[in-house]
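MODEL INPUT / OUTPUT PAIR
PAIR INDEX: 1
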Amino acid sequence: MRFTAYRAGIALVAFMAMCGSANADSITLGSGDIGSSFTLNYDGFSNGTTISGLTGSTTFKLTGISGNTYNFDYTVSNTSSAPVTDSRISSFAFNTDPNISSASSTGAYSYTTLSSTYPNGIGTVDVCFKDAQTGSCAGGGSGGLTLGQSGSGTFSLGFSAPVSSLTLSDFYVRYQSITGVPGISSASGAGTLTSSGSTSSTSTSTSTGGTPVPEPGMLGLFGAGVIGLALARRRPVARLAR
């Protein structure tokens, strides 16, 4: 019994090592994709737990490439619903390959930050577009899009040399001022690609060096595996009489 439990614990830990973390979707764009757009839907999670009803969406359109700069239109929508009674999306972010050297934006999210930190295990993101000049991409400010609102604008991504193709990956949004969910006032969301007009390749399983998104509940499973291993390794209390 002890060895069976031990083998089960080893199997669980091995399974978790294979599963690892899930990376957000990615898309590759080149000069042939000018005029193409792609849409992502976002979940909501905090401390590894998915928050029901906390959702959002973004649409990005490549409008042109000028020298070392890629230009986009964007639309962000706060699509949250019950049990969430209100929330605001204060920023959106993603990673780039090659490395970005500059960025600018207009519209609903007219402030940009490079190498910013996102909470809930996401870590550093290459570029973030936020609603307010003050505060970081992880929090602060009081603007953004509240439940049911949409906002649009443009952004430009600059690189140190001409780029023949650009990969965007690991798309995130930041939720704040959440109401209707006990104990939760802020959260993050990871994007899933739902449609693309791009002629270049897209991927839902690979990432270009972005930070993995923690799977909700994975920490709990890992804890269960560790406990199982600890119990399996204990010596039996009772021994057979000689």
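PAIR INDEX: 2
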Amino acid sequence: MTTLRSRLFIFISLIVLIILGISVGIIVFVRQKAAPPVEQPPAEDQTGQIDSTNFPVQITPPPVVVPTGIPVKPLTTEEALKNGAKQMAKIFTERYGTYSSDSDFANIREVETLVTMSYWSELEKKIGTGKPAVFLGVTTNAVASDVVEYASGKAMVEVSAQRITTKGSSTTQTNEKAKVWLVETKGIWLVDKFEWVK
């Protein structure tokens, strides 16, 4: 048989537990009422596309305004080919003209796919031809290009470039020009000859 003191302790403990249970229940109920609804991400269909009907607001792009009175002339085939030649000349000039004495002739290896087979046989001979005693690094940025000569399948493009040269601890910046001869093979321009203009 339990003593009066034990019964009193059990009774008070039960009352405290009941009050705690009611308090926790009220807090949970109030928080559920006050919590904002959880938004579901847009549903994806079987193709991985987002179903735009699940968005609450439809966003429409601004209207495209085409100026009136200015005719838009499509490029001719020749103009497109010339643009391609200018772009290839700039890409080649930047890649070939940017190098570091620490990069083990990476600038030459990177242009192998941009040149003709005959020109690659010339460039390949330059790989491993010596390393300067002092660090030498050149960064080349092609600024502009212009088609100087153009015939069916052949072009000569003049490229204006800005070159930053670091030799040892000194840095210099120069503006130089290069001539790039290209030939077109199956719609792709390849470099056939390159030289810096003195």
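PAIR 2 NOTE: The domain at 77-197 is CATH 3.10.450.540 (Nuclear Transport Factor 2; Chain: A,).
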